[in-house]
TrEMBL record:
Coiled coil: none annotated. Diphosphate binds at residues 184, 234, 296. This is Nicotinamide phosphoribosyltransferase. Residues 176-403 form the Nicotinate/nicotinamide phosphoribosyltransferase domain. It comes from Chitinophaga agri. Pathway: Cofactor biosynthesis; NAD(+) biosynthesis; nicotinamide D-ribonucleotide from 5-phospho-alpha-D-ribose 1-diphosphate and nicotinamide: step 1/1. Residues 5-102 form the Nicotinamide phosphoribosyltransferase N-terminal domain. One of its GO terms (molecular function) is nicotinamide phosphoribosyltransferase activity. Beta-nicotinamide D-ribonucleotide binds at residues 207, 296-298, 338-339, 369, 377. Its EC number is 2.4.2.12.
Length: 471
């Protein structure tokens, strides 16, 4: 169980809302969606982690309430904002368990944008304020959803270039084309864990160990889903200076005489390293290995560097031409590009290789900050909004529909217009569509109750979620 105090895991202004909702409010119902953004599809993933870590069980206790009261009196400087009795009621009536119901689409589900992915509503009318109090924490599911979506979109690109240039035998390796190098660039261990596990829905290559830990801990992955290989860094390769680089390379090959190993090769002169060291002096040792040497350039313009590296490697090691007419290095040699890799830089790299007659199967990628850190809530425009309430026994459909002015002062329809009423998600001819709950009663709601009154009601395994997200 997390060490964090749930009573303090909300934006400060929310502690005033118990007073600000209109008197007689009994129920608040809100939904979570991607309102648009960079990609037209979005992957739902990560809610189970937040339920397990923060919401299940007796999460409201007197000790936590005492701590929260002290902090909130300091924050507001007045005693008429935070109402201790609201939380004491949950302790006395519900044993500290949250009287809310959360429904969500099964994790790993891929939908078009502007679809309801999760709903939350209070189950006790005295706790109407609790629904959107939990918004701050539950909204953070935007992060694993966005990483999973970004990683999946990159896989679409990889598959496109494999379809166009790679041999059929190479397709088995697609899951290892994009490798997560983002642990050190993530904002926290928690974000590396949940973001790193999100990437593993689409690919199997990862150096972010905590991603596999999270997949096993919260999603019952039977074994670590993120796989890696021995690899060097510059501190290893530069140990004997420039004149000793080839001796370091030889030592690396001797240290791991079999299997796949990666070696950063740009410490001094990547072209010399490829031509004179790997491609000449160590060539026979490489070709006689039972395994693959993955050469890593790490500086300069990625496209120009890769084209030159492949030109040299194919001159020195030779190549075959696959059934689609593209050049392929011997299986003992491959290249990894880990510098400057992002969603926008990947297609031009593969396109440049294609134009040069080089198969995509020769190259794998490493992606760090651009995978786990260069995203935010607006990448996919995630929002959680109230769409339904009950006040004095009367149901009310709730909606926001802002008037917006564009840069020229003209009015326009806002993409922030929210849904109205209780929602359901249905499948029509394989396409997900959000509808008001009362519409199309013959169509089954794809939203599943995953949490109710402190208990997790449905869970998903990592393997199930991977299957759901498959392209």
């Amino acid at each position: 169980m997390t060490k964090e105090n749930l009573i303090l895991l909300a934006d400060a202004y929310k502690y005033s809302h118990h007073k600000l909702y209109i008197p007689g409010t009994e129920y608040i119902y809100s939904y979570f969606e991607s309102r648009g953004g960079k990609f037209q599809e979005t992957v739902f993933y990560g809610l189970q982690y937040f339920l397990m870590e923060y919401l299940q069980g007796a999460v409201i206790t007197k000790e936590k309430l005492d701590e929260a009261e002290t902090t909130l009196l300091e924050v507001f400087g007045r005693n008429d904002v935070f109402d201790r009795s609201r939380f004491e009621y949950i302790i006395e009536k519900h044993g500290g368990r949250l009287p809310v119901r959360i429904k969500a689409v099964p994790e790993g589900t891929v939908t078009g944008v502007r679809n309801v992915l999760m709903t939350i509503e209070n189950t006790d009318p005295n706790c109407y304020w609790l629904t959107n109090f939990l918004e701050t924490l539950l909204m953070q599911v935007w992060y694993p959803c966005t990483v999973a979506t970004l990683s999946r979109e990159i896989k679409k690109t990889v598959k496109k270039y494999y379809d166009e240039t790679a041999s059929e035998a190479a397709f088995a390796g697609i899951d290892f084309v994009l490798n997560d190098f983002g642990f050190r660039g993530a904002s926290s261990v928690e974000s590396a864990g949940i973001g790193g596990s999100a990437h593993l829905l689409n690919f199997s290559g990862s150096d972010t160990l905590i991603g596999s830990t999270f997949a096993k801990r919260y999603y019952q992955a039977p074994v670590a889903p993120g796989l890696s290989i021995p690899a060097t860094e510059h501190s290893i390769v530069t140990m004997l200076g420039e004149e000793g680089e080839v001796d370091i390379f030889r030592h690396i090959l001797n240290a791991f005489p079999t299997g796949t190993i990666a070696c950063v090769s740009d410490s001094y002169n990547i072209l010399r390293a490829c031509r004179e060291y790997w491609g000449t002096e160590l060539k026979e040792q490489i070709l006689n290995r039972q395994g693959t040497l993955v050469i890593r350039p790490d500086s300069g313009d990625a496209i120009q560097t890769l084209l030159k590296v492949f030109e040299i490697l194919m001159e020195t090691f030779g190549y075959t031409v696959n059934e689609k007419g593209f050049k392929v290095l011997p299986p003992q040699v491959r290249v990894i590009q880990g510098d400057g890799i992002s969603y926008s830089s990947i297609p031009p790299i593969f396109e440049a290789l294609k134009q040069a007659g080089i198969s995509a199967e020769n190259l794998v990628l490493g992606m760090g900050g651009a995978l786990l850190q260069r995203v935010n809530r607006d990448t996919q425009e995630y929002a959680l909004k109230c769409s339904y309430a009950v006040v004095n026994g009367k149901p009310i459909n709730v909606q926001k529909n802002p008037l917006e002015l564009d840069a020229n002062g003209n009015t326009r329809v806002s993409f922030k217009k929210s849904k109205s009423g209780k929602q359901k998600l249905v499948l029509e001819n394989g396409v997900y569509i959000s509808l008001p709950e009362h519409e199309a009663p013959e169509k089954a709601d794809q939203l599943v109750t995953v949490f109710e009154d402190g208990d997790i009601k449905a869970t998903y395994t990592f393997n199930q979620i991977r299957k759901n997200a498959t392209i």
